[in-house]
Amino acid sequence: MRFLFYITIILYSFSTFSQESDKNELLKKGNEAYMSNDFETADKLYSKVLQSDSTNVDLIFNLALTKLNLGKKTNGCELLQKAYKLRDEEAGELILEHCGEIEYNENMFTKDVDELPKFKIDDKTYDLITEDGINKILFRRLKKRFARSSAIKNIGKGKIFVMFKIHIDGNIESRVTGPNSSLEVNREINRLLKDIAVYIPCQYKNKPVGMFNSIWLPIEFN
Fold first, then answer.
1. d(CA 40, CA 119)
2. CB-count exposure of residue 88 (10 Å: 0-12, 13-18, 19+)
């Protein structure tokens, strides 16, 4: 169960302020009912708020737990599937525990897919992630390109962290963080990652899926 809070902006009109205030009160009472094991009341209160706040993932998650506690497994599982689709990792764990399989989604957490992403170089296909982390074949290819990149050479000494994910269409998206990162470096690494390989997305139920979570790649320059 998660406690739910709303921040009301002072510039709202009185009408909107009143609506938010009413919603806050319903959520507060819903939380109190849930904590008191009064799941019937919590169900009514959360459901009422959901009518005007249908994408609030924490609210959906709480209502799912409420339904499960009331023995309404079908409704609870439907809500958990919806929460997962809205990027709730914990919902996936509860689906596996109470509902069976996670439904196919265009984006999923990598721990839930059937096959992790792969990459292809010179018509050979490799696992992108190995027991040692990022596949060394890809990493070595990337480091060779670094040596020829003026933007990367300007980094000097230090470390950057590259976060990247493979989308459902095989397109790679990356973002660079760290004290030596910059917009220029971010663009260059994204270009190099796209240039060195062809990427194959995760697979679930024999269909491609994109990734909710990113893969971290630390790179140190000496």
1. 50
2. buried
Spell out the per-residue pLDDT of the chain, length 222, in tens. Answer: 665 543 333 343 434 434 566 788 888 899 999 999 999 999 999 999 999 889 999 999 999 999 999 999 999 999 999 999 999 999 999 999 999 999 999 999 999 999 999 999 999 999 999 988 899 999 899 988 888 888 877 776 777 888 999 999 999 999 988 877 788 888 998 999 999 999 999 999 999 999 999 998 888 776
DSSP result, the chain:
------PPPTTS-HHHHHHHHHHHHHHHHHHHHHHTT-HHHHHHHHHHHHTT-TT-HHHHHHHHHHHHHTT-HHHHHHHHHHHHHTT-HHHHHHHHHHTSSPPP-SEE-GGGSSB--EEEETTEEEESEETTEE-HHHHHHHHHHHHT-HHHHTT-SEEEEEEEEE-TTS-EEEEEESTT--HHHHHHHHHHHHHH-EEE-EEETTEEEEESSPEEEEEEE-
Contact 193, 172 (CB under 8 A): yes
